[in-house]
Amino acid sequence: MSHIYRIILAIFIVSQTINAGFFDKEGLILIPSVAFRDRSSPNDWNLHAQGWYYEENPVQAFLMEKSLELVVRKDLDRNRVKMFTAEGEDGEQICINALSRSMCTKTDKEGRIKNNFKLTNQEIETLRQVSSGGGKVLVDVGVQKKNLKGINEILLCDDNGLTFISDIDDTVKITEVTSSTQTLINTFSGDFKAVEGMAEIYRHWEKQYNATFAYLTASPDQLYPFLREFFDREQFPIGSAHMRHFTWLDKNFITFFMSSSYMSKKTETLEMFLKNTLNRRFVLLGDVFQKDPDIYAGIYGQYPDRIEKIFIRKYDNDVVGQERLETVFKDVPRHKWATFEKGSDLPRNIF
Ligand SMILES: *[C@@H]1O[C@H](CO)[C@@H](O)[C@H](O)[C@H]1NC(C)=O
What we know:
GO molecular function: phosphatidate phosphatase activity
Order of helices and strands: HEEEHHEEEEHEEEHHEHEHHEHEHE
CATH topology of the largest domain: Rossmann fold
Number of strands: 15
CATH class of the largest domain: Alpha Beta
InterPro entries: APP1_cat, Mg2+_PAP
Protein name: Phosphatidate phosphatase APP1 catalytic domain-containing protein
Bound molecules: 2-acetamido-2-deoxy-beta-D-glucopyranose
Domain Phosphatidate phosphatase APP1 catalytic: 163-314
Organism: Rotaria sordida
Distance between the termini: 45 Å
Largest sheet: 9 strands, mixed
């Protein structure tokens, strides 16, 4: 794959020299997030807002699209490609508003919004909207100097209850991460395809257990709007999304999608859920194609009483995958983990 990387890098450097200052098309992506009770004062909640404020670079998007098309020999969706050539707007003032409270802060150097703010329990009760589990609150996020605004959905994750934490690529959506060409095709062309039966069983569990959902993925947050379209079309339960962010400075395109550096990020997010809730229990879903089993086995080792079950997607006839799982999960009781290939292989009752 290294030739692809070189082509893309060359295109990138050339197009960097074409100043994109002529264009001024900016956007704001807000990604559903979570709120936990404040551990030091349980009458307050900590809400995490997350998003990205960017400016498009149409020249670079065009060149990038054409070069990727040469490599994968398919038509790609420019709207998706252009999110990867857009640049984060760093150090810009953004304000988060809920009720009469306003909290203003700046985007980080990648243009990301990653902010915590507090609301009292009473304020949460005023704002709470019905959604599965503990409900959600909506907060306004706006860019000060522009008329650019959006609504950030924040799901309430209280101390009790059940949360399903699910990977996306090759767990609920067909990405075929074991092939880099297929990953590019499945990411940048055509409609995203769902793993059969997953949306149905997730909806069933959501209702049956009054559960909340969190989607934990190595995919970049630049893809969130397209994933959301996919989730809504397939009717997956709404959940918070915990994604990485792609930048040109420190990573290249292909290795970003292929790298295993997401292990620590995923583990950190799982720890955030476990540390910030007292008795909430979790069901973890992932696949054998990447590092989910290793990550989940690690978390199980730390919090055995709070992980109800681990489900790993693999092909039914994948003997090597099965052996790998037996090894990775050697310290996890056998009844605590199971494999599946499609939604209908999963149990309707977890306990
Ligand atoms: C779901 O859980 C939330 C939070 O514990 C609770 O307020 C709500 O009433 C529950 N809904 C159902 C249908 O049990």
